[in-house]
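Bumping with the actual sequence this time:
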Amino acid sequence: MSIRTRWFIANLLAVLFLLGTLTFTMTIYSRDSIYQKIRENSRYSVSQLALNVDHLMQSYEQIMDFLYTNNNLQERLLAQYDSFPEAEQMYFETVDPLLQSVRGSQQISNLIFYTENPLFEFAGFFPIDDEVRSSDWYVAFRSNPAMAKIWWPPLKDTFRNEGFLRLTQRLNNLNPDAELYVTMDLNARLFDNLIANENKRHRYIVALPSGGVLLDSQQSDIFGRNLRDYGFYGKLGDADSGSVKVTDETGSYLLIYQTLGGRSSVRGTKVISLIPEEELLTNANEIRRIALLLFGAAVVLSIAIVYFLSRGMTKRLMKLASGMRSINTEQLRPIANIKGNDEISALGRIFNGLIDRIDRLIRDVYQSEINRRELELRTKESELYALQTQINPHYLFNTLTAIRGSLLENGDKENAEMIKLLAMSFRRVLGKSGQTIRLQEELETVDMYLRIQRFRFGDRLLYDIRVPEDFHRCAVPRLALQTLVENAIVHALERNEKPTTIEIRAESADSDTIRIDVEDNGPGMAKEALAEIRRGLDEAAPSGEKHIGLRNIHQRLRHSFGPPFGLELASEEGAGTRVSMLLPSAGKATDAEGGGTLG
């Protein structure tokens, strides 16, 4: 067997082994990773849905809490009146306006009060008679006096041919023994909007602690349905959350559930998601198919490469033998293709040793220089990293978030909101790289900055931002517009005791240019000062420490978009100042870092 054949077979086997091992490992790893990622996303989706369900139910419970804590309302409803006109006058003067405001929600279809006062013969009021005392909600309250409110599964109103959810509340805050109740009927499709944007192939179920089903995304008729009627009920664990595989006549599913806790009225409510297992494996199977195709292509390509390499290597060996035979007549010099066989192996080793020593010498020299330069580079990187860690934005964000949490715990919502805006502002400023951003992001940064300044100046600061959405995709240097607004705060608002208005407007100057104006009604400036600022915009280097911000913005606009763009200033003493920023339209704007068009 020739050297060429042996070399070809050995290398081909090694390549096939490596490719096979790598393909198998990556296929298994990718499949498991994708499956796990989909499961994690699904768990997060269920947790988010559970949170939304909790918040939605809480919003209507807060209405009931308002009625429960309104002692004035309860006092009027529990009072004894000598005549119906006296009760009627009290009702329309005090009770009816309050109830009208509560009934204003579109989702509240009915609000009914149950009382023992015989004079309350008004719309929405019913006496507590034998029929009421035999109802489920009344029996539940009487059997558990500590119970404040109860959610009931959807019921069907045969008179109006529609369904409704019912929330009942006992109004005994003023008098613990009072026989006064209120029921709120809500639209039975109340929870449908919560899953409007979810995957239509996923099935979502929401069930009360009693098992009554509030929502089933694949069942329109849920009246009277109970969670115990579903085949997977027995596989739901006692834990607050979990996942399990279930199978029925329609196929296999991954069941993920989350149990609400916290308030006693919703504790035990379950939010369930059923995800078809075939959907979980679709992407994983596609990865396996692609991996097999790539493996086949790699095998074919490897055979071709190994063949041509082996052919080239043996050819060079024959050329080396010819070159070594002529070494005495042509002087000693490097041969391009070093070859050898058994008869000239000694001369080949000497020649290879010579080339190897020369190569090592060259590499030692180059490696020494490379190591020296690399050491210098790493030293600079370490210094930069040390500086960076001093202003680590994550540390800053976490610290501000902790401060905000402490303020909220102490009831200082105003300062907590200011800290929240400050953290969001830092996240925008420090969280992204690049010289230019979209105008929409810059406007959001400006809005947060002005909201923060409102905490400082109060009613002295008024602002209005009106920028058409057509301009939101335009490129603008980072913090350019924010600097102009900050300039207006410093030079207009801080020097003016009267309320100051800052207006931000945008319009098309021509087909390729938009103009963004930042205008204030502050004290303005003299003509001489305005002329000095205009001259300083185009200076190659700043002549002083004043107006460096305006000059930097003007120079950045010129550098990023060209000479036609930049800043224009207009001001009149006592009549305010307007600074205009000229930018290319969205179709012409170019990202200064990446060189691509934003559009």
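The tokens above came from a reply further down the thread. The radius of gyration is 39 Å.
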